[in-house]
Design goal:
Layout lengths: L1 H20 L5 E5 L6 H17 L3 E5 L6 H8 L7 E5 L1 H10 L11 E16 L8 H10 L3 E4 L5 H13 L4 E4 L3 H8 L6 E5 H9 L4 E5 L24 E9 L4 H15 L2 H10 L2 E2 L4 H22 L5
Parallel strand pairs: 1-2, 1-3, 5-6, 5-7
Antiparallel strand pairs: 3-9, 4-7, 4-8, 4-9, 4-10
Length: about 325
Amino acid sequence: MKRRALVAAALAAPFAARAASWPERPVRIVVPFPPGGTVDIIGRLTAQWLHEATGGNFVVENRSGAGGNIGAQAVARAQPDGYTLLLGSPGTQAINTHLYPNPGYDGIADFAPIILMTQVPNLLAAHPSLGVKTAAELIALAKARRIAYGETSIGGSTHLSAELFRLQAGIEADHVTYRGSSPMMADLLPGRLAYGVDNLPSILPHIRSGALVAIGVTSPQRWPGAPEIPALGETLPGYEVTAWFGLLGPRGTPAEVVERANAVLNAKLAEAGPRERLLTLGGTPAGGTPQDYLALILAEHRKWGDVIRQAAIKLE
């Protein structure tokens, strides 16, 4: 028994040494959407917290396009050495494979999940010029006249949030898709769109400033940070969409890198400062094991595949 313990310790020593030495050079965290949106915010916080915990250099690279496929594909094809990572979302990991004939990667098979960082609701907001304040009023208006709506990520959770709202409300409206939050806001804020859906952290400042009117959050319950905003499910029973964001590496990323990144980020997410930062943004701190994150991706893949087929949602 003693000899076995010594052998095990000897084998574990190089593993621990490699884990402790990562990162030895800059790590690229690919955010597959433009700057300014929720994915970008969470990506930069993740890079900051990894730097604080390890002393390493973590650089965020925005590679947007094709609903996140361009950035996700770049990471899937990268060298699996722990120096190229992805800030993934429901779109890149669970939805796009059901919408795109050839996204260029497999959101499950081509990645090594590291940690789920946060879960956030989306928010549907209308321009004040419409004169509506509730989901019921917006639905009535959309049935009375044709209006246009936008979302920030074709194939992503904001897209499905908008489509599910339209389908469950029984309305017809003109759909405009954008490559990120900032481009959509450029049309929503001046009133060129009637309403739009975005991740709550990105759109909430415009609600608080009075530039937009909050119609409802997509989570099953009201968000505790703004309990005055109803859940859309209060008007449309059964309506529910939640966005989430997590860190992944390419398939084959060394186990010691996955475990070290997971450990330091779990520790960060347990601290009061990072938790408060995410809660202020509208997110719920997550964490957990790589296996927990994989289980979520698999469940979301099944869920959205069923929804997309049943609703016959297609890319325009």
